[in-house]
Amino acid sequence: MLLNWCCFLAFLLSCLGKFTEGLNALENAGPLSPLKPNVLQDKFASYYVNNTISVKGITIGGWLVTEPYITPSLYRNATLLAKQQNSSGNVSIIDEFTLCKTLGNDASLTLLDNHFKTWITEDDFEQIQADGFNLVRIPIGYWAWKQNTSESLYIDNITYNDPYVSDGLQLKYLNQALDWAQKYELNVWIDLHGVPGSQNGFDNSGERMLYGDLGWLRLNDTKKLTLAVWNKMFQTFLNRGDKSPVVGLEIVNEPLGGKINVSDITDIYYEAFDQFKENQDLSDNTTFVIHDAFQGIGHWNLELNPNYQNVTDYYFNLTRANYSSQDILVDHHHYEVFTDAQLAETQFSRIENIINYGNSIYKELSYHPAVIGEWSGAITDCATWLNGVGVGARYDGSYYNTTLFTTGDKPIGKCTSQNPLSYWTQDYRNRVRQFIEAQLATYSAKTTGWIFWNWKTEDAIEWDYLKLKEAGLFPSPFNNYEYFRTDGSIDEEFSSSLSTQAFPRTATSAFSSATSTSRKSKNFASSNKLKASQMLSIDSMSSIWKMGMCAFVVTIFSFCMLL
Ligand SMILES: *[C@@H]1O[C@H](CO)[C@@H](O)[C@H](O)[C@H]1NC(C)=O
Ligand SMILES: *[C@@H]1O[C@H](CO)[C@@H](O)[C@H](O)[C@H]1NC(C)=O
Ligand SMILES: *[C@@H]1O[C@H](CO)[C@@H](O)[C@H](O)[C@H]1NC(C)=O
Ligand SMILES: *[C@@H]1O[C@H](CO)[C@@H](O)[C@H](O)[C@H]1NC(C)=O
Ligand SMILES: *[C@@H]1O[C@H](CO)[C@@H](O)[C@H](O)[C@H]1NC(C)=O
Ligand SMILES: *[C@@H]1O[C@H](CO)[C@@H](O)[C@H](O)[C@H]1NC(C)=O
Ligand SMILES: *[C@@H]1O[C@H](CO)[C@@H](O)[C@H](O)[C@H]1NC(C)=O
Ligand SMILES: *[C@@H]1O[C@H](CO)[C@@H](O)[C@H](O)[C@H]1NC(C)=O
Ligand SMILES: *[C@@H]1O[C@H](CO)[C@@H](O)[C@H](O)[C@H]1NC(C)=O
Ligand SMILES: *[C@@H]1O[C@H](CO)[C@@H](O)[C@H](O)[C@H]1NC(C)=O
Ligand SMILES: *[C@@H]1O[C@H](CO)[C@@H](O)[C@H](O)[C@H]1NC(C)=O
Ligand SMILES: *[C@@H]1O[C@H](CO)[C@@H](O)[C@H](O)[C@H]1NC(C)=O
């Protein structure tokens, strides 16, 4: 019920709100300038000047904040260890919170230290540079600032009870990573991926809470501790001179607007920015990065924007005088595998969605830089534990509490992508490569840049850059497209092959306007060298595409609810 209600609400808000504003065509949007090579001196601030440089980034997820689906063996080991510790205990380790709680300080520290030491090493940074990335996004949890685990003592003498372990361990590895980044001339964006009480209830925030209220900004001291952690982050990572690899600080990953009041999120974004500016020297160019909080495209255009003092004056007393709109960056995440509807998409609409999405983001760039800070190669949700330890996949109907299958509809298909690559059909491989290319081509041409999720995993191939590249499913170099042109436009032959398979006859009842859509597909196929920008002008005329875009937001929203 909650889920349905939330989806409905998200749908309504997305469809009625500012969101539609971002859907309008961008007929005149030409391709952006070509990419420059990466050098450390290319700070974020200069990236954004007329978008001459685009972010080509990779996230090292599942390292300093662990995630079960990225390193299942770590979680299996933890469970075994817990059973050894107490054979009569009922062990349920589903996230880092329960891992630390179940194993206790010493065993958790040993296990995690071993993971931190081995999962990412200098070799990874060397290869990240060699492969052509210019930025590394490094997630870290607030508990990295827990100074004394056994006393639950955080910075600023704040006592906050949680089971996480630290004693400075994660910061030690983060500093090590910054040294490597500097050595290999990689820019770094530090991302606070978990805040006290959890900002989204996903296991990747440290604490999985799929149902009920979230703790962040609601439970005692969660706000106080968050502000203290931010202050410490700003003091530590700003003003480190032009050799510092740190070019961006993302204050909180994916706060779940909808479960957390967006007006509260907005307030605390402003508080954080005030603190940021108080700490930042005039000569420092580090960017203040906010996640869109799952609000529609364009939602943040006027917020934190010095050109709209009528808006910012409401919040600022201290620092409003001195900043440019380039100091702030909005991070959007995009996945298409967290609702039944998205999973049921044809390849045609999947690709079309990406192109339309890129065009909508492009419209934001006159207000602020905007990066697609998370995306993947996934076209199903079949990776083991992607939806959480013990949770199945929507794609094959093994997910509990899913919206569609519980009402009696059939699963979409049989899961295979959780298996080694040798089990994948050629068709599935092609579709993954096409989906990746669509995103690379579109995001490179239409946004401030992109950051792929994720550098590596144990066996979640669609989320694993290294495995995808090795299998020939991720272009190398990044613009070595098979299905797109380097300017981001779609290859003609590819587009016609897609349109013929776009809407199988069996699907007609699900699409009331299937005929007009097919006609559109033919247009798409026959127009010569159709560019992404032109494609949108065709599509924006039809409300079915707007509905499609709304479905996106629902997807992302549901992802929040369910992951
Ligand atoms: C950016 O583009 C605008 C409009 O085209 C131009 O006036 C301005 O000089 C450009 N700035 C830089 C730094 O190239
Ligand atoms: C899990 O335990 C096995 C066997 O002790 C060990 O080889 C492996 O390194 C451990 N993995 C992790 C991630 O802790
Ligand atoms: C072991 O687990 C049992 C059952 O959950 C619990 O009652 C007991 O306190 C645990 N013992 C220890 C030492 O944690
Ligand atoms: C163990 O925990 C699970 C999940 O919390 C629960 O469903 C189950 O009943 C528990 N079993 C026992 C023996 O306590
Ligand atoms: C944490 O506090 C305890 C008790 O005061 C002390 O024995 C221990 O050394 C402290 N640990 C760290 C890492 O400072
Ligand atoms: C923290 O508390 C201790 C003991 O109460 C005190 O000596 C110290 O000055 C406090 N530190 C800060 C930064 O407030
Ligand atoms: C939260 O703070 C309020 C006011 O200080 C207090 O009354 C309440 O008991 C606290 N709740 C918890 C769970 O600590
Ligand atoms: C910040 O950017 C300006 C303009 O590009 C540059 O002159 C300055 O050196 C940069 N500051 C640092 C600390 O890199
Ligand atoms: C969100 O907070 C604002 C300001 O405190 C309040 O007016 C509004 O009713 C809240 N919305 C919800 C859904 O709670
Ligand atoms: C601020 O000004 C802009 C541009 O004039 C306008 O679109 C917006 O509605 C105004 N906002 C407020 C809160 O007054
Ligand atoms: C800014 O200052 C005004 C007047 O002093 C005050 O009413 C307002 O609450 C302050 N705003 C913030 C965000 O601190
Ligand atoms: C399904 O959702 C309900 C609330 O809507 C929740 O109480 C229940 O625990 C969920 N089932 C599982 C297996 O998580």
TrEMBL record:
PROSITE patterns recorded: GLYCOSYL_HYDROL_F5
GO cellular component terms given for this protein: cell surface; extracellular region
Keyword line: Cell wall biogenesis/degradation, Glycosidase, Hydrolase, Signal
One GO MF term: glucan exo-1,3-beta-glucosidase activity
Signal peptide range in chain numbering: 1-17
Domain (Glycoside hydrolase family): residue spans on this chain: 117-377
Keyword Isomerase appears in the UniProt entry: no
Biological process according to GO: cell wall organization; glucan catabolic process
Protein name listed in UniProt: Exg2p
Source organism (scientific name): Saccharomyces cerevisiae x Saccharomyces kudriavzevii (strain VIN7)
